[in-house]
Design goal:
With 513 residues, the protein is mainly alpha-helical. It has 20 helices and 3 strands. It has a 3-stranded mixed beta sheet. It is globular.
């Protein structure tokens, strides 16, 4: 069964070139292959999540080379949750892209989609810091192509900014890895955890520099202040299904912070004691503030949703910065929630924007077709993103607030989250009233636009992915107890990495030939 650990990486890696070279001229065949591969990926992810539920850490040694000399993939509860989350999101996005025809507006969508999944899955599974960099590059290269899918001057401009920012981050990542290796002689995460803990405090200046450099790199990926500015421009100009898929991209950066700065540079490590939290908490609070103000001041729908993603990252990282098991459990629950809520809103925005003459401009226009349906879905997505009951966002924020009660940053965290939530609610209420409520006071607009093509209602298959993403939030809220219990186990493994270290370095993994 352990050999299944490599399947989430191998499956999309093999499928992508087949789709790209053999099926590129047949969109129907490409869709079928992509759906089959993604469904298989979901089934594998479910199996791995069940497998990790017992609390064991499983290791896959590539080429039969044991760690720290060889490359290893590591499956624990946290990695399993992230795999399952990615696979579920991929199914929802793929349904929308196929139903709306987005995948046919440019070449190689499905091949790039599979390469993207390969990079994301590999980043969640790898047990080596250098291979984390490799998988980062795989998913970023695929995301460059998806970002400019279907072309356009504005999209190309935003894509260039995205490329430049992430290339700078990748360069900094290499510097950080070089610094880590110079200080410790290893890049294996488990080996790093042992060696960093064994270093004398007076001889660990280089390690502290490496920890800060890695934090800066992961902050870029996670869109934390002061390097969050690339996200609104990128997400608001990307194709809607791509923006929905990118909801997991910032989570890769957050995952890297959680994994590396808990297992390697954790709160119990003397040489980096308090270093991460000192920088992460203010950055998280300011990120939340930037996101909330951006939502309130946005004049277009897509930037509004992009700033909401920034704000949600700030909320989650406030809990991460506390570096306690309960706060980490809360952060992981909110991570799952924010991924589906962002995806639902971006997919819904695509349905709305494509049926308005003004596009995503927040201005009153005559109600378009299915105004009531879109308004109801927007209302559900807005209360989820803002953290209002009864959906999972409310429970996630409540857990974070409760977890922060015992920390020195309680007042700062509570004020930031509560005020940020209020501002976000006002921003979404303003946008919803302009898009849907004020429209009802005007004459219906069912006329054909200037090109003569009548406005077409969204079919059931087009609406289904948005409904499915929102349904995930309902399931997450209804099953909050079991989900939180699983995530509590994941947090326990993070803050007691002895099981992780012994599994990786103790030769307990099954070798892959």
């Amino acid at each position: 069964m352990t050999h299944w650990i490599i399947a989430p990486v191998i499956l999309p890696a093999l499928l992508a070139p087949i789709i790209g070279f053999v099926m590129r001229h047949d969109i129907g065949l490409a869709r079928a292959a992509s759906f089959a591969g993604t469904i298989a990926l979901l089934a594998i992810s479910v199996g791995l999540t069940v497998m990790a539920a017992g609390g064991e850490t499983y290791v896959y040694e590539l080429g039969n080379w044991p760690a720290p000399f060889g490359i290893v993939l590591v499956l624990d509860r946290l990695a399993a949750v992230m795999l399952l989350l990615t696979a579920l999101l991929a199914i929802v996005v793929l349904l929308h892209a196929s139903a709306t025809g987005w995948d046919a507006r440019g070449r190689h969508f499905h091949a790039l989609f599979q390469f993207q999944l390969m990079g994301v899955m590999g980043a969640f599974l790898t047990g080596d810091a250098f291979n984390l960099f490799v998988f980062f590059e795989v998913l970023l290269i695929a995301s460059y192509g998806l970002m400019i899918h279907s072309g356009g001057r504005v999209r190309m401009k935003a894509g260039l900014q995205y490329v430049v920012m992430n290339l700078a981050g990748s360069t900094l990542f290499l510097f950080a890895l070089g610094t880590v290796y110079a200080a410790t002689g290893t890049l294996n995460i488990a080996d790093l955890a042992e060696k960093v803990r064994a270093l004398p405090v007076e001889d660990a200046a280089l390690v502290r520099v490496a920890a800060v450099l890695l934090m800066m790199v992961f902050a870029i990926k996670a869109a934390l202040f002061p390097v969050q500015f690339w996200l609104p421009a990128t997400y608001s100009n990307a194709p809607a299904p791509v923006a929905a898929l990118f909801a997991i991209m910032t989570k890769v950066g957050a995952y890297a912070i959680i994994r590396v700065h808990t297992v390697v540079f954790g709160p119990d490590v003397a040489v980096t004691d308090g270093l991460t939290a000192t920088w992460l908490m203010p950055a998280a609070v300011i990120t939340l503030a930037v996101g909330a103000v951006g939502v309130l001041g946005a004049r277009r729908l897509m930037p509004l949703l992009s700033f909401a993603v920034v704000g949600s990252m700030g909320t989650m990282m406030i809990a991460v910065a506390a570096f306690t098991p309960y706060a980490m459990t809360s952060a992981l629950y909110y991570l799952v929630h924010s991924t589906f809520s962002a995806a639902a809103l971006f997919l819904l925005a695509d349905l709305v924007v494509s049926r308005r003459k003004g596009g995503d401009l927040l201005r009153a226009e005559p109600p378009t077709v299915q105004n009531g349906l879109f308004a109801a879905l927007f209302f559900a997505g807005a209360i989820a993103m803002a953290g209002m009951p009864p959906l999972s966002g409310f429970l996630g924020k409540l857990m974070i607030l409760d977890a922060m009660k015992t920390t020195p940053e309680m007042v700062t965290a509570w004020v930031a989250i509560l005020v940020g939530s209020l501002v976000t609610i006002v921003g979404f209420a303003r946008a919803g009233s302009i898009l849907f409520w004020k429209a009802t006071a005007m004459a219906p607009d069912d006329a054909a636009p200037e090109d003569g093509e009548a406005i077409r209602p969204a079919g059931a298959l087009e609406v289904a992915p948005t409904v499915l993403a929102l349904a995930m939030l309902v399931v997450l809220a209804a099953g909050a107890g079991p989900v939180a219990q699983y995530l509590e186990g994941a947090s326990g493994q993070l803050f007691d990495p002895t099981g992780y270290v012994s599994a990786v370095l103790g030769g307990q993994g099954e070798a892959g030939q």
